[in-house]
Prior knowledge:
The chain is α+β, with helices and mostly antiparallel strands. It has helices spanning 8-35, 52-61, 69-72, 86-97, 148-163, 170-201, 211-215; strands at residues 44-49, 77-83, 102-109, 122-132, 135-147. It binds ligand 0O2.
Amino acid sequence: MNNKEFNWSHFLQPYELAVEGFILKIEGIKKQYQLRGAYCPIEIVTGRVKTPDSILDKAKRINVKFENIAREVYDIGGVRITCKYIEDVYKVAELLKSRKDVKLLEERDYIKNRKESGYRSLHLIMKYNVETIDGQVPLILEFQIRTHAMHFWASIEHSLKYKYRKNIPETLKERLKSASVAAAKLDEEMSSIHQVIKELEGDEKIIDQDPLENELSMFDIKKW
Ligand code: 0O2
């Protein structure tokens, strides 16, 4: 089998289903926190499935044979969760790791060990069986969990990489690295402020509305 004969649309459909499904599942977790009037560690959830060109580029770069792509390229399907604070990033990671529908294959902590570029995020590589019209399909998903500051940095660096076709000028690279250090300082300071707020206010109950008011419309169920 080679790239030209390969049915990419068929191959990528289970990833689309899995990513869309996980966005819904994580939105569901957010709603549950809201209904309980509890502090929610999740702010924003998004996802994407890589394009065939991007998959082939990556496979080439990391030296993966075409037939091993599904097993060895981990980020074909990606779910990204953005949080306010670093401690929330790890809370969300624990939530995901404790789920029975996924199995952790690998954890890449680019927060404790930031990448050479300055990139920071926590990546969980998870195995997941997605239900399709052809039955269960096992696949690998990458969950990227990060703070707003990490996301701000990563999205700008990502667009610069695209603009300069991956060859960002050295001076800009150095400035990006310093910006990453500054973003890490900001994360630390916001975390410390968060601790003080928690000590002042006690339990992280944040919503004073009556949760019952929302209960019936919790998941926007289409009623019969
Ligand atoms: P897109 O647009 O999200 O598809 P590598 O891909 O080899 O650099 P590695 O170690 O294989 O990195 O990382 P991993 O854990 O597979 O993560 C790959 C994805 O993480 C990337 O996908 C990015 O989304 C993000 N990422 C990793 N490193 C960086 C970085 O230095 N800068 C930014 N901005 N994002 C990074 P894609 O395919 O690059 O992008």
